[in-house]
Amino acid sequence: GEPHKFDPTFTGPVHNRGCTDVLCCVIFVIVILGYIVLGTVAWIHGDPRKVVYPTDSYGQFCGQQETPNANKAILFYFNILQCANPTVLINLQCPTTQLCVSKCPDRFATYIDMQYNYRRNKSYWEYYKQFCKPGFNNPDKPVSQVLRDEDCPSMIVPSRPFLQRCFPDFITRNGTLTVANQTSFKDGHGKTRSVIDLRAAANGITSLLDAKEVGTKIFEDYASSWFWILIGLVISMLVSLIFILLLRFTAGVLFWMVIFGAIVAVGYGIWHCYWEYSSLKGKPDSDMTISDIGFQTDFRVYLQLSQTWLIFMISLAVIEAIIILVLIFLRNRVRIAIALLKEGSKAIGCIMSTLFYPIITFLLLALCIAYWAVTAVFLASSGDAVYKVMSTLPDCKYTNLTCDLETFSQSNVTKLCPGSQCTFAFYGGESLYHRYIFVLQLCNLLVFLWLVNFTIALGQCTLAGAFASYYWALRKPEDIPPCPLASSFGRALRYHTGSLAFGALILSIVQFIRIILEYLDHKLKGAHNACARFLLCCLKCCFWCLEHFIKFMNRNAYIMISIYGKNFCASARDAFFLLMRNVMRVAVLDKVTDFLLFLGKLLISGSVGVLAFFFFTRQIPVIQEEVPSLNYYWVPLLTVIFGSYMIAHGFFNVYAMCVDTLFLCFCEDLERNDGSPSKPYYMPQGLHRILNKNDQAGKKYAVS
User: Using an 8 Å Cβ cutoff, are 76 and 99 in contact?
Assistant: First the structure.
């Protein structure tokens, strides 16, 4: 008789299914609509110019076209020494007047010196004037009044622009900090100050300056080598494709080759590290420790230390030992894994379109990330300009109170605190919307996580449906339904959006809590409360475990949803008990598959990385002339290695999903069928042979 008659619900993924978890689906749609509204509101209120351009004391943007500041793109601080205040780096606002200027000062000068020299030579005032308030043109005004009203800075120091702000131009000469070759300067109040005071004022800025220099060089490297990086990524894509297609013919041979290749490669690494270590051992200066030399941008410095090679050698030896032990104890299980991987490769060979499904996931994720980032920037920049009273007098009681720029000159604050000003402080606001911006940012983050996890869930469910239709075809490939991937995608979206959203929501809430815990941990870094730190550490650990468990459960629940079309909770329960009944197989298969696929990823990214290394360090004679000249050859090298790893990861993810689906179907097959003509096994011959399951043994298993 026809084998499809014995159990109509079991000819592959159920076709006559209904919608599941409708309530969650409705909530999900409402949340998405709310997210669009949030994005629109943020877009109306926000102004990314507040993030891009610096703002002067009058609340105007520096460098914005069609304003008086159009040609003045840089922010200048009247008295940079005021910026030594630790609160400054939090909101980047120093308690001193800030003006937009076209270029930073390039010399030391004080207002007193300028007044003295101006009588002989007008050019002194012309130069100094550009750093005074617009419209101020009275060089004879007494110094005390000028400094009280903050018409002009008391001094200027040679500076250079960074992040569109003028910061003192520090250069360290022979271990001594200098600005324009000087170690001291006059502060315009009749005192001589050390350059170290300036350093305190611009603390944190100098390290940023170094980082900026490195950043510029890295950008140049990308600009000159992007074409070759692209070629490297295309090569890794082709290698990944070939790798997966080869598995259907040579999974066993290829994997033993991968494993022995890894053992030999790590062994060679150990030998090389030992050789480097022993050759450096006798040399002077090589016995310094890594902590002695601190952080260096030139990586080659570390390679001249014997300690570096010792660390490499020990790490590689540990990896080698782990690989060998795993092989000795799990060799039989590895055979089962290889049989499943061969089957997986055949399934992918029959449904090639599945390999390119990750592109859809990638595009959807890119859309989510872009929308989230834009909304976050617009939310962050949607405050109104807040002005505060700033006074040069130490005992003014109005200092730091909010004020209104228009009415300030008529208020009694100017009478009680002469010389006080109403200057721009930061962007914020008192309205309901502004008060809840932080809450809205958190909502933005939570919905973003939900959408990302939903996208991943949709991909998993779609692939599981396609591979399940392969497994439950009695004659492969003749009985596989047409367009398995497209019909599985349609089923997942039409019937199971609610279930997928439910699973994604649980995972997102756990991830959200983890992010908040990380934030709290970061905030408490300085606190010496050991109890709080310990509690946080425990919580972080628990939630990490919980997240990984939920990910595992969701993945198997989605496979069950794609096969039976039940709701999320029922599917998760069925999957859980099915896995528990086969717990040893699950543990070994899961780990062995992960291990083998991880080795495959390493092999692909490693081989492409070695090729890129020889190319970028000009060690391939044939194409030596083509290599662009680079500041740091590790920039394109790391990009190629990381990129090829991610490409291999994308392909192998499909593959791992395939193996997991086939495994769950295989467990179901064993429990439901006994190999008799009325209940034949659906599993392929290869798996049958590996498990030594003739039909009679299958019956015994079903009974036990």
Answer: yes
Cβ-Cβ contacts under 8 Å for 330 (sequence gap 6 or more): 588, 592
Residue 155, φ and ψ in degrees, nearest 5: -155, 160
- Decide if 336 contacts 426 (C-beta within 8 A): no
8 Å CB contact between 424 and 55: yes
Nearest Cα residue to 178 out of 158, 192, 163: 158
Task: Give the angle 307-311-313 at the CA atoms, nearest 5°.
Answer: 115
Please state which of the ranges 89-93, 493-497, 536-540 shows the lowest mean pLDDT: 89-93
DSSP secondary structure of 330-375: THHHHHHHHHHHHHHHHHHHH-GGGGGHHHHHHHHHHHHHHHHHHH
Backbone angles phi, psi at 176, to 5 degrees: -105, 135
Residue 586 contacts residue 337 (beta carbons within 8 Å): no
Q: Edge to edge, what strands does the sheet with 159-162 contain?
A: 98-101, 74-77, 165-168, 159-162
Torsion angle of C-alpha atoms 135, 140, 144, 150, degrees rounded to 10:
10
Cα–Cα distances (Å) from 326 to 235, 476, 588, 599, in that order, read 31, 34, 11, 13
Kind plus residue range of the DSSP H or E element containing 101: strand 98-101
Sheet with 402-403: list strands edge to edge. 402-403, 384-390, 421-428
Average pLDDT over residues 292-317: 79
Q: Structure tokens of 526?
A: 């300085």
Question: Which three-class secondary structure state does DSSP give residue 177?
Answer: strand
**According to the model, what pLDDT value does residue 92 have?**
45
* Separation of first and last alpha carbons in the chain: 28
Is the predicted pLDDT of residue 141 greater than 80, yes or no?
yes
- Average pLDDT on 95-117 reads 85
Shortest CA distance to 206 belongs to which of 171, 157, 156, 158? 171
Say yes or no to pLDDT of 88 above 70: no
- Per-residue pLDDT tens digits for 55-69: 888 778 888 777 788
CA distance 99 to 60: 9
Q: Are 97 and 57 in contact (CB under 8 A)?
A: yes
What phi and psi, each to the nearest 5 degrees, are found at residue 6? -65, -30
Omega into 161 within 30° of 0, i.e. cis?
no
* Maximum pairwise Cα distance, the chain: 115
151-187 b/e (C-beta count within 10 Å ≥ 16 → b): bbbbbbbbbebbeebbbbbbeeeeeebebbeeeebbb
Neighbours of 646 (CB within 10 A): 14
**What is the per-residue pLDDT across 471-491, written as a single tens digit (0 to 9) for each?**
988 888 888 888 899 999 999
- The residue that leads in pLDDT, 49 or 375, is 375
Question: Strand 74-77 to strand 402-403: parallel, antiparallel, or no bridges (unpaired)?
Answer: unpaired
Give the other-Cβ count within 10 Å of 685's Cβ.
9
Quick one: three-class SS letters along 373-388? Answer: HHHHHHHHCCCEEEEE
What are the phi and psi torsion angles at 110 (to 5°)?
-125, 160
- Say which residue the tokens 């200092």 belong to: 399
Residue 43 Cα to chain centre, angstroms: 24
Distance CA(646)–CA(608), nearest Å, equals 12
Residue 6 reports pLDDT greater than 70: no
Q: Residue 401 is encoded by which pair of tokens?
A: 């109170």
DSSP 3-state assignment of 293?
helix
pLDDT band, very low/low/confident/very high, at 157 (cuts 50, 70, 90): confident
CB burial class (10 A; 0-12, 13-18, 19+) of residue 633?
buried
- Phi, psi dihedral angles at 424 (to 5 degrees): -60, 135
Separation of alpha carbons 90 and 594, rounded Å: 44
Q: Which neighbouring-strand residues pair with 387? A: 403, 424
